[in-house]
Amino acid sequence: MASWYRGYELTELEGYLRHACWPPGAQEGIAQLRNAGVEVRILSVTWGFAVRCFAEQLNVQHCLGTELLPNGEIQHCWGRTKANFLRQLMKQFQISRDRVAAIGDSSSDIPMLELAGLRFFVGANPPQILDVIHLPNSDIRLIAQKILASWM
Asked: What fold, for 2-151?
């Protein structure tokens, strides 16, 4: 996949990303959470440059994506990577499971979702884990409202 981007400058790729279609309510939902004091992180299997570009547009300070290393190796951001990242955050900031919400869209997100006390699945076929709120193709404002209603 890295070969797809050979010959393109990063600024050119980011220019294309600035025209990407957002999920409904993404900007407003993230703003609602941030305004309520909720820390938001974006973790994605997508290339890191794209994740950083989207995070910047959403005013999210911390994100994680798949990286192409200088030596040509790919450092993937798999589901277990997301789970490890979330586990480290929970430990570092002493956050209990009941104050963690996670949103996933594929079965690879199960390890991350299992760590969260509040779990949302926006993909078509929800995983078979307990207490997943299935909202396929959901408006992010609705998810933000559900998170805030659960925690406030």
From this structure: Rossmann fold (3.40.50)
